[in-house]
Amino acid sequence: MKQASRQPISLSTGARHAAALVLVGAALWGATRNAPAQPAESGPQVPVTTAQVAQVGQGIDWDGTLQPVRQSTLAAQTQARVLAVKVRAGDRVRAGQVLVSLDNREAAAGVAQASATEAQVQAALDDARAVHARSKRLLAQGFISQASMDGADAQLRQAEAQRAQAGAGSTLRQLASAYSTLVAPYDGVVTAVHVEQGELAAPGRSLIELHASDRLRAVAFVPANAALLLGPQPNVAVLLPAAVGTVSRRLEKLSATVVPSADPASATVELRVDLPAEESRKHLPGQRVKVRTVGADEAMLTVPRSAVLLRGELQAAYVVVQGRFVLRALRLGRDSGDRVQVLAGLREGEQVALDPVRAGLAHARPAGGAAK
Predict the structure, then answer these.
(1) pLDDT tens digits for 205-258?
(2) Phi and psi (nearest 5°) for 103?
């Protein structure tokens, strides 16, 4: 009996490729099956703090504005043509610096005339003194009568009066000449220029406005009945304006002055709060502020202002949830020093990142221990 001959089995090209892929996959699975597990990528450690309930003084916020402590409106004191305007709005000036020059030819002519008159009466006074001295000697020798001596006395007093009058006139002319130059009374900033070269300046017309930039004060108008409860010099807080993307700063325990007079039209009293010099240099007159009069304490949930993330209209914080950071929107209330009130979005005892920018990085995790 014949045995059937064995024929070689031929595989197509696609089948060979599939078999090769299966073998490679099996090899890779075997290699990774026994390989040690790789640790997760480590991220930055971010310090955290705990949302706490604190006793914060209640208060009422009043709208106010920043005003310079010293501000001036410089006006003309004589009628003259404007020769030169040496400053523009926004220029910083030094005390004694010339701001506006007026035509002083008429004033200079008046000074020259007064000087000539003063020299004339001085000569007459010298002559009267000489006559008086001579008459006194002649009277002692018996050559003139007492009546002649009295006449010499009268002429001397008249000459002295004319000399005093001429001196006063010369001083007035010199003052009028000085009015032709408008100078800065102190170091400051020019806020407005109301005159141009060639215009006619008249007495009382406003030419330049400027203010001293070294000190500012917050001014708010409080109802008279509320002002009576504050006392003459209450302690207040001022919420200062802040740049876009930052949290407003609050200055606490500032001394305020209540102006003891109410406006009959609005029934309000002016409340003035002087800012420290270092804070005054960071702001501009006219900026809006909030002035808070502090009252009784109130319990409120607060977090540090540095833990709040501001992105446009979004107010949020990175909250620790199961060992990682989760971004959560917040609804904020009043500021209290370096902390801010949280109305919604957090519970007491929850932890938030003190550095929300780093907390938003990949694989960021809370640092060990909570920072108080």
Answers:
(1) 999 999 998 899 999 998 888 888 777 777 788 888 776 556 667 788 888 888
(2) -65, 115
Q: How far is CA 84 from CA 3, 99, 166, 199, in A?
A: 129, 8, 32, 10
Distinct helix (H) and strand (E) counts, the chain: 6, 22
Nearest to 214 by CA among 257, 271, 288, 278: 278
The token pair at 169 is 């006139």
pLDDT in tens, 56-87: 666 778 899 999 999 999 998 888 899 999 99
Strand segments, DSSP code E, in 44-104 are 45-50, 52-68, 71-75, 80-85, 92-93, 98-102
Torsion angle, alpha carbons of 86, 92, 94, 95, to 10: 90
Using CA atoms, how far apart are residues 311 and 244, in angstroms rounded to an integer?
10
| Three-state DSSP state, 71 | strand
Instruction: Give φ, ψ of 209 to 5 degrees.
Output: -120, 135
First vs last C-alpha separation in the chain? 98
Q: Which two tokens stand for residue 362?
A: 């990949």
Residue whose structure tokens are 């109410």: 262
User: CB neighbours of 167 closer than 8 A, spacing ≥ 6?
Assistant: 118
CB 95, CB 184: distance < 8 Å: yes
Please provide residue 133's backbone torsions phi and psi, each rounded to the nearest 5 degrees: -65, -40
**φ, ψ at 322 (rounded to 5°):** 55, 45
Q: Can you state the angle between helices 105-141 and 146-178, rounded to 10 degrees?
A: 160
* Residue entry with tokens 């907390």: 359
Using an 8 Å Cβ cutoff, are 299 and 73 in contact? no
Look up the pTM and report it.
Answer: 0.52
